[in-house]
Amino acid sequence: MTNHEFYMKLALQNAAAMKGQTDPNPLVGSVIVNDNRIVGVGVHMKAGEPHAEIHAIRMAGEHSRGATIYVTLEPCSHYGRTGPCAVAIVEAGIKRVVIATLDPNPLVSGRGVRILEEAGIEVIVGVCEEESRKMNEVFNKFIVRKTPFVTLKSAVTMDGKIASYTSNSKWITSETAREDVHLLRNQNAAILVGVGTVLHDDPQLTTRLPNGRNPVRVILDSTLRLPLEARVVTDGEAPTWVFTTPSHDPDKRKALEAAGVKIFVTERTGRVDPSEVVKLLGEQLISSLLIEGGSEINGSFFEQKLVDKVIVYVAPKLIGGRNAPTFLAGTGLEKMSEAVELSDVSVQTLGKDFKFVGYPVYP
Ligand code: AOF
Ligand code: ZN
């Protein structure tokens, strides 16, 4: 490992510790090194608060002069909620900037580097680039597309079922895998299920972790069947947003709104249109969405090519049953040659279960 990689990895690790609390902003870490000594460290902790470099520069004080700064993302060039970091770096007298990756934000991309170079600062781009990109997979999509990065999560038996033929599903996976799901909830800005899941399980959809952050609870409900007594309506643990169609009952809408539920009406009639949902969520600055739906909801997002990442927990159990649901319904693709392949697939053992992660590559 080179010196550059060593300090960049430190910046990446610090940044990664903020996972789940910076959105819609990226995870960014920074380390300032002067004369082989770390003189400042900083991370971006929350949107609206100072950027990573600013914390590090403040900590380093006079030691910034002549130093090298490591940043996991190109220093910004725009006047946003905070001033441009590239300018702060110039003013601090830093002489070299090592960057993991350029900022995909069209407001910034390349401009931060230009400010630095025009000030005569040496700029190196691309140290630990892959790690930094991967860490900000959510931000990278959201800042360009303005719709959330969508993760589809499911838990299945070894024969691919998400429930028995009687709709019983508690529990497929063991405790360790279920704890992992709470981490996922903590890292996503919103979680989505169909009203069928609410009617069947009355879930809370909250993060059961110490200091866990609850995602916004999104329910797809074309005719507003959501009961006023449902826990997502009454518990006040997190905002609940319901997406419905023009064919809903206006009185039910009023009652749900009075109970604090926010209602969005999509244009399409029949079933709620998933692509309208992600568009509206993007407008609400929801940068990441975790789908914990049943087969039909999952299938509809998949068929519209809206799923960016798939996480499947597989339990070494068999349940069988021709009517027991699998995790993707809908019509499905006709031939195996049309199958959507996943890239960057990984497998991890979690207690007795396995966690598969992959990224669909749509043709
Ligand atoms: C940096 N360092 O630590 C972060 C950056 O709304 P603002 O002003 O906080 O700006 C957010 C944008 O700034 C965000 O979209 C991304 O382009 C960049 N984030 N840049 O130099 C940081 N968090
Ligand atoms: Zn900045």
TrEMBL record:
Its cofactor is Zn(2+). The keyword Acetylation does not apply. GO terms for molecular function: 5-amino-6-(5-phosphoribosylamino)uracil reductase activity; diaminohydroxyphosphoribosylaminopyrimidine deaminase activity. Its EC number is 3.5.4.26, 1.1.1.193. Binds 1 zinc ion. Residues 2-114 form the CMP/dCMP-type deaminase domain. Pfam families: dCMP_cyt_deam_1, RibD_C. It catalyses: 2,5-diamino-6-hydroxy-4-(5-phosphoribosylamino)-pyrimidine + H2O + H(+) = 5-amino-6-(5-phospho-D-ribosylamino)uracil + NH4(+); 5-amino-6-(5-phospho-D-ribitylamino)uracil + NADP(+) = 5-amino-6-(5-phospho-D-ribosylamino)uracil + NADPH + H(+). Keywords: Hydrolase, Metal-binding, Multifunctional enzyme, NADP, Oxidoreductase, Riboflavin biosynthesis, Zinc. Pathway: Cofactor biosynthesis; riboflavin biosynthesis; 5-amino-6-(D-ribitylamino)uracil from GTP: step 3/4; Cofactor biosynthesis; riboflavin biosynthesis; 5-amino-6-(D-ribitylamino)uracil from GTP: step 2/4. It comes from the Bacteria. Converts 2,5-diamino-6-(ribosylamino)-4(3h)-pyrimidinone 5'-phosphate into 5-amino-6-(ribosylamino)-2,4(1h,3h)-pyrimidinedione 5'-phosphate. In the N-terminal section; belongs to the cytidine and deoxycytidylate deaminase family. This is Riboflavin biosynthesis protein RibD. It comes from Paenibacillus chartarius. The gene is ribD.
